[in-house]
């Protein structure tokens, strides 16, 4: 097992903000290539309302394609985002492994993103947890969006975030929990402080994931800060794909290849084969309407 767990999110967080619909075949080729590079957990899409995110309307075809692909052995965890019980029930009928239930620490962002108050989302979490309990093939992750900053309310209160974290663990003790810098405005010092506190109040059996965006070029510094606090699970997107349609101004996720470079150059094993990951970067560059980022990618281009 590698020393850190890199969770690839481009096929969901990255693709969701691309306007031209990406063909299912292109999505499958990307997922296949990412899996082939050694990534053990891939968020492959979302069970959301197609009017809210048109790009995710093909999630069932994507999951069926993965299941029936001859080249692709789903030896990785297939993660799908669900915003409510309805999404969880739909996902339970499909070939996937982990539900990623998302809601925001900031009430305004939550209302705009999933049309619920915090209290309603916490109640919904109980329903989603029941769906997971009734379907032993499924595991659960809870993503706390806007854990640091909200595009509408500004800086998010650290104490509020920790309180929501504890309420989430109480409702879903078996879940993995992600603290998400949705807008990419978190500062490494704030990341270190929040992760220090979060990890000190969390049972060691609860993995805490760091999800960040590279809006101000602080993505890797933030990953380093979370790592130093003890975090070992990190979301990232190949080629810095990303953004959030409900977080105006947010840029892409921290790039997977940058995270891999950062850890590997410190002698920390990621389990990812960089040359194979380069093939996924090439595929990302061919996707119409993709907004990409990342430092290694720019470097590769100059070296060609
Ligand atoms: N998938 C598909 N359809 C869904 C659904 C889901 N997960 N949840 C609800 N619906 C449908 C209902 O069946 C209903 O359909 P109808 O109009 O044909 O009768 C309709 O949506 C309204 O249901 P309601 O429960 O009132 O949902 P809503 O209008 O409050 O929408 C969400 C809530 C969460 C489903 C919607 O806002 C959404 O999908 N948001 C996406 C959030 C997201 O992915 N953000 C980016 C990632 S962080
Ligand atoms: Zn995100």
In short:
By secondary structure, the chain is of the alpha/beta class.
Key descriptive features of the protein:
304 residues; alpha/beta; TIM Barrel; eight-stranded parallel beta barrel; 43% helix
Radius of gyration over C-alpha positions, nearest whole angstrom? 18 Å
The side-by-side strand order for the widest beta sheet comes to: 1-2-3-4-5-8-9-10
The number of helical elements comes to: 12
Which residues form runs of ≥5 with pLDDT under 50? none
Q: Span from first to last CA? A: 33 Å
Average pLDDT: 94
β-strand amount: 15-25%
- CATH level-four homologous superfamily name: Aldolase class I
Question: How many structural domains are formed by the residues?
Answer: 1
What class, by secondary structure content?
A: alpha/beta
CATH architecture descriptor name: Alpha-Beta Barrel
